[in-house]
Design brief:
By secondary structure, the protein is α+β, with helices and mostly antiparallel strands. It contains one helix and four strands; from the N terminus they run αββββ. It has a domain of 37 residues. The structure holds zinc ion. The site of zinc ion has 8 residues, from loops.
């Protein structure tokens, strides 16, 4: 098994850790019912539909 020749410094370790900071991107897709952007496999926050049926009653914001 290959073994690192030198111990990575605290600085290098932190640089590696921080390179992943803020990488989380939530993928969205348009709702099949209303077309609003939202996550797949989640109830639509705009119309309250999931799997082709109303599961939440959403009050109109305006
Ligand atoms: Zn919707």
């Amino acid at each position: 098994m290959a073994v690192p020749k030198c111990k990575k410094s605290k600085s290098k370790k932190q640089m590696r850790k921080r390179s992943h900071k803020g990488r989380e991107i939530i993928a969205t897709r348009p709702c099949p019912q209303c077309g609003a952007a939202g996550q797949s496999h989640r109830v639509c926050s705009a119309c309250g539909y999931y799997a082709g049926r109303q599961v939440l009653t959403v009050e109109a914001a305006d």
